[in-house]
Write a structure and sequence with these properties.
- The chain is of the alpha+beta class.
- It has 3 domains: 6-73, Integrase, N-terminal zinc-binding domain (Arc Repressor Mutant, subunit A, Orthogonal Bundle), CATH 1.10.10.200; 84-133 and 209-247, Alpha-Beta Plaits; 135-208, 2-Layer Sandwich (Alpha-Beta Plaits), CATH 3.30.70.
- Helices cover 43% and strands 25% of the residues.
- The chain contains 9 helices and 10 strands.
- The strands form 3 sheets. A 4-stranded antiparallel β-sheet has the order 3-1-2-9.
- Strand 1 (84-91) and strand 2 form a beta hairpin.
- It is globular and about 45 Å long.
């Protein structure tokens, strides 16, 4: 599992800096819209919708916003029919592979915005498939709190998980990430909850099969500027990259 969570760790540190930005509200609302559209608009019978709602509540999104997004996704009010999911791929400085997932109602606008963000920050938007082969999609459950590793191991076996990794959620909170195939994510989340683990998040995540070590402040600054520029675009839902950097270098970039 070495390296699986490095980008997730970077994302957690960035999230503390980016938390004041309202982008998270729009991003999660779109997730709810698409989840409600792709299945029944009832979270009890729609795992994708249920996890999106849990994410929304964790981000303190008001209930009326959540209900409005569900209504849009289920067709009760307008605004959801044109959204489609598209994956884009590109490169950052040093040949770093970058995978972007977007929800858009205008492919041309999204591609143009992405191309501009890449070109202004030392990267290139590539063709479909240029870096996708470097990533595998996995279902990931993040659990928080003090971890009894034996209990986690047994729960992972019961849920047919592939592996797990102990992590630090933040300075004061321990935790773990448990990995499985995408189709098994709902079962994994259910088993962990039944075993009294606190499941903070269930998501599908792109995991790089190889990583690029970033060891200079110049490259780190360029890459993080690119990642920020991509994540700030309205249509972008998630950005994943295959670079690693030390905690010290990461912290120096956050100042």
């Amino acid at each position: 599992m070495a390296g699986h969570s490095k980008w997730a760790n970077i994302k957690r540190q960035k999230a503390r800096v980016d938390a004041v930005k309202g982008k998270v509200f729009a991003r999660i609302s779109r997730e709810i819209i698409v989840a409600a559209r792709s299945g029944v608009p009832d979270p009890a019978g729609n795992f994708q919708l249920r996890t999106a709602i849990e994410k929304a509540k964790a981000a303190d999104i008001p209930n009326e916003n959540i209900e409005r997004a569900i209504a849009k996704g289920s067709g009760l009010v307008g605004g959801s029919s044109e959204l489609e999911a598209i994956r884009y791929e590109g490169y950052g400085v040093g040949g770093v592979a970058i995978l972007i997932e977007a929800l858009t109602d205008n492919r041309n606008r999204t591609a143009a915005d992405l191309r501009e963000a890449f070109s202004k920050n030392g990267g290139n938007l590539g063709e479909t498939g240029c870096v996708g082969w470097m990533f595998d999609q996995k279902g990931v459950c993040t659990v928080g709190g003090e971890i009894d590793e034996e209990q986690l191991f047994e729960a992972s076996l019961e849920a047919e998980a592939e592996s797990y990794e102990l992590i630090s959620i933040d300075e004061d909170t321990e935790g773990a990430e448990v990995f499985t195939n995408v189709a098994n994510l709902e079962k994994l989340a259910d088993v962990l909850k039944q075993q009294d683990f606190t499941v903070l998040q269930s998501e599908n995540r792109w995991i790089p099969s190889n990583t690029v070590e970033i060891d200079s402040p110049e490259k780190a600054k360029s890459l993080l500027k690119l990642m920020d520029a991509l994540e700030e675009l309205e249509d972008v839902q998630s950005v994943t990259a295959n670079f690693e950097m030390t905690d010290e270098l990461m912290s120096s970039m956050m100042v």
